[in-house]
Amino acid sequence: MDIQEQAISKKQQMMDFCVGKALEILKESIETRAEHLSDDKMDEVEQKEYDRAMEELTQTYVRFPAVQHIKDFLHLPDYIWQSDFLENLTMEQKRKWYHQPMVGNYSDFCNDNTSFDDDCPLFSAIYKVVVNEKYAQYLLERMGQRNELRQFREKRRKKKETEKILAEVDAIISDMEEKLSVRHTEVQRREDAALRSVEEVENPSEKPIEILTEETNPFNHKFTDSQIAFLAEVVNKVHLFWGKDVTEEEMRAIFDCKVKVPLKSKNNRLLAQFFSQLSYREYITEAWQSVIAKNKLFLSARKDDYINQSDLSSACNHLNNSQQSGNYLKISNYIQQLKKQ
User: What is the SS3 assignment for 259?
Assistant: First the structure.
């Protein structure tokens, strides 16, 4: 790293600190309001905030064209150095960025966002661009996730209505099948007995071959090795289980229902979020609760017993009635990325 790059790096650090503090305040404000407002009200709040951020961005780009390409490099930690911002400055402005130290501190900046502009021309403009671009992206993600949750709830409501109708039809069909079965059982029994007698006479030393069948993929998944590895990384990042990190082999064993030692859940609601998101995006069966309970895959977080279907159902009910944040939101974001693995 040369002298000029070192100088820009120090000023980048101050920029990151100022931006980080601003975003922290903005996000905390949104999340606090989300605890007290309905989804519809939050739609209005976040849309207004998004419109305000975009309007401020537009004004900044019009007033200061030199910063308009900063947004294309925000995925890089040294976006000031990597963008063409410095190339669009005058010689005097470049000299200040490369050679003039920053006078003042964060308190000065809080009182006046332009306090660093004398030593770093357009510092306040870059600050506005980065804060508003990142804040707008954050708002878009929140609004998108809430829309997905609405769609999921509507899909589940329709599913329940369909299941009710299908259950009534199944009851009728079951009654008819039972009546038919009674008529044919005796005939079938006699035919089977006669067939066995003939086979025993023709092959007295041979034993009948017993054909065993089993459900080899209860979760009905089609995960690739890379997806299994990604899912193992996800559960470790959100600390889904007690003990050491989950390996790829253990994750594969879970979805194949062949676990040797059940893992103990840290939080049953977080576990339910993980599997419900996979089911919602059709990576696993909708009957995942039953599969987990039937195969005794996990130990409950609050008791030394296997997680049952009632535990999972209660956890899902809580998820449906609460605003998602923290690790719940992280899991949803991670599962969205699964198809790219």
Answer: coil
Q: In this predicted model, what pLDDT tens digit does every residue of 129-172 receive, in sequence order? A: 999 999 999 999 999 998 888 888 888 888 888 888 887 787 78
Report the SS3 class of residue 306: strand
- How long a stretch of residues is the chain? 341
pTM value is 0.47
Q: Dump the DSSP string for 91-155.
A: HHHHHHHHHPPP-S-HHHHHH-TTTTTTTSTTHHHHHHHHHHHHHHHHHHHHHHHHHHHHHHHHH
Question: How far is Cα 330 from Cα 337, in angstroms, rounded to an integer?
Answer: 11
- What are 241's strand-pairing partners? 265
CB 270 within 8 A of CB 327: yes
With H, G, I as helix, E, B as strand and everything else as coil, classify residue 265. strand
**Model confidence over 59-68: pLDDT tens digits?**
999 999 999 9
Distance of CA 256 to the CA centre of its chain: 22
Cα–chain center distance at 104: 41
